[in-house]
Known about the structure:
33% of the residues lie in helices and 18% in strands. The chain is α/β, with parallel strands linked by helices. The strands form 4 sheets. A 5-stranded parallel sheet has the order 3-2-1-4-16, with helices on one face. Helix 1 (5-13) packs across helix 3, helix 4 (45-55) crosses helix 6 (87-101) and helix 10 (226-237) packs across helix 11. The longest helix is centred in the last third of the chain and has 21 residues, at 394-414. The protein is globular and about 70 Å long. The relative contact order is 0.14.
Amino acid sequence: MNLSETQAHLEASRCLFCHDAPCNEACPAGVDVAGFLRRVKTGNLLGADALIRRDNVLSEVCGHLCPTEELCASACCRSALDQPIDIGGVQAYVARHSRVHGPIRPISAVGHGTREHVAVVGAGPAGLAAAKRLVELGYRVEVFDRNKLPGGLVTYAISSHKYDKDGLSFEIGLVEGAGVDFHLETEVEDPLDLLEAFDAVVVAAGWGRPATLGLEGEDLAHVYDAGTFLGCVCAWESDKSPTRLTLGDTLLVVGGGNTAIDCALSAKRQGVGRVVVLYRRSLEEMPAWKPEIHRALDEGVEFEHLVQPIRFVGQGGRVTAVECIRMQLDGSDGSKRPTPIPVPDSQFLVEGDSVVVAVGYRGHRWIVDEPNGPIFWPAEVQVCQAMAKPAGTVVEAVASGKSAADQVHNHLSEGT
Ligand SMILES: Cc1cc2nc3c(=O)[nH]c(=O)nc-3n(C[C@H](O)[C@H](O)[C@H](O)COP(=O)(O)OP(=O)(O)OC[C@H]3O[C@@H](n4cnc5c(N)ncnc54)[C@H](O)[C@@H]3O)c2cc1C
Ligand code: SF4
């Protein structure tokens, strides 16, 4: 929900402006939360906006998308009195207000182009943050992305009901405006190749490809992996692609993480009548953020817990059902999460017109070269840590892009 001017002001006025501001520590991107709330309280929206954007290239996007209840708001001292400050809500308000009404301070790229030439692979949150940091430090920066549009998973996986796409375009525009060149629809085969033309490379290529279940029938028509499904939905939503998937009346989603819930919600919004999430543990163990699960329940998504798909069943080459087996939880091995164990002879069919498999991501080939293990890059190539953390957040990706840019800067300026 977008906060109004009054709501944002009242929310900022509830801040205790704690001396040690634990909210600042809890923000992965290092935003001075207490500082921007103070500026909002005193009516200095331009200053508040500049303070947030100094540390977070995707200010408005993160205002909407950050799981603040797990980050800054979880550290908020105001919780002891009543409830935490709606930090994300105020941040989104400030960023949107500046975008719509101005003025806005452009990214400061004073010495732009006076230093070495750096390539960034990936125009997602990590790549954008790295590009911003490098251009501010005076480097000539070029960003390469294989997609048609920049923004990474924010553009191609996160449904527009969760944030304002105009805010994303605007924030990318600020990076472009600072002198960063974007080469879209340009796949990089090997980051080392770029060292022929660039002095250093930041690799911000994301989580890699969605994992599959490896089950019989997974190649049937209308069985989609989460990446393909969300990519098509997002492209269709932004009116950039005529591709609209045939989903039918009942869609099954396999998985229990945030991606599975996003797929379920997106399917509902595409008009699918019945959406059922199949998950092998119980609701308590679902890794998806709890507010997202409740949102899905509110929007009519059904959950079938303690079931494990064992086969996709089809007719005429297209999926018609998923054969599942019931599971029970066993906590006897002392591990944090109980282990799901199949209940003998409990197979059953769940019928569906289409299926989305959302069961995580395979390690990126530039992080781990299976079966040989981790890949080590020369100091000129800095890999963003977000690539090694599937299920991370936008703000963590922003932090990892800044950190990779700093490593490049240290290497080029001090040879470390
Ligand atoms: C369904 C879903 C919902 C999510 N919801 C939220 C949410 O609500 N809140 C939140 O904080 N986070 C959410 N996330 C997580 C968030 O989107 C990611 O953490 C973030 O996008 C990671 O940023 P990144 O820059 O590391 O990678 P990406 O966003 O994946 O960007 C990587 C970019 O690199 C490009 N690339 C890759 N390889 C190459 C190559 N060889 N050559 C050229 N370009 C290449 C890709 O095209 C892509 O544009 C969600 C993710 C998903 C999948
Ligand atoms: S912890 Fe909460 S109350 Fe304290 S400064 Fe941060 S936002 Fe304000």
